[in-house]
Amino acid sequence: MDESWLVVGLGNPGKEYARNRHNVGFLVADLLAGRIGAKFGRHRRAVAEVAEGRLGYGGPKVILAKPLTYMNLSGGPAAALAQFYKVPIGQVVAVHDELDIGYGLVKAKLGGGEGGHNGLRSMSKSLGGKEYARVRFGVGRPPGRQDPADYVLSDFSAAERKELEFLVDRAADVVEAIVTQGVEAAQNAYNGA
After folding, report:
1. Could you tell me which CDD domains the record lists for this protein (predicted)?
2. Among the options 22, 43, 96, 117, which is catalytic?
3. Which of 29, 47, 133, 167 would be 93's cystine partner, CB 3.0–4.6 Å?
4. Which among 77, 76, 78 is positioned nearest to 88, based on CA atoms?
């Protein structure tokens, strides 16, 4: 199985953003790197940290990426890596926070709109299409009148942190299901739960 997959964890670089809702893609990428026994290093052709390995023994090759350009410009590094590794758009997976899904839910999706998510908008523009898979990590809507931008750039609440490790683990499982079985199988296994 020589087909490579590019898994792009969306987030913002820097310690001040590390535990933000917007950085859940980085948390999932870090967990997946641990699962495949890979370490992140700076890529020579893209403004991103990259880790490479195989899912399981003899499984598909996976390139994990954390763009270092800030969320709104994530597409540039994603497209550069897709080109460098010759990964078609249908084998790109974006892992991101999702306001339209309640906290505690993780869903797989293929293509579609960006829902106002600037990281996805940047990826669609740079990749030249929307036909890539997404792992949507529900963060829910901001309370009261809080600005959604402020909400996603704030840390998970104490109550949310109790479940965070489990949910990041679940999101990593969804990524693995997409890569090994396809988006539809991942949807059937995880979207209803």
Report:
1. PTH
2. 22
3. 133
4. 78
Residue 93, strand partner residues: 7, 133
| pLDDT confidence of residue 192 | 76
The answer to whether 22 is a known catalytic residue is: yes
Residue 141's pLDDT is what?
94
* Contact (CB, 8 A) for 115 and 170: no
Residue 118 is part of which domain span?
4-190
191 known member of a binding site: no
User: Which parts of the chain fold into alpha helices (H)?
Assistant: 24-36, 75-84, 118-127, 148-152, 158-181, 183-190
CATH number of 47's domain: 3.40.50.1470
- Confirm whether residue 132 is marked as ligand binding: no
How far is residue 86's CA from residue 192's CA, in Å, rounded to a whole number?
33
- 138: Cβ contacts below 8 Å, ≥ 6 apart: 98, 100, 101, 102, 103, 104, 105, 106, 107
Residue 1's pLDDT is what?
Answer: 44
| Total structural domains within the chain | 1
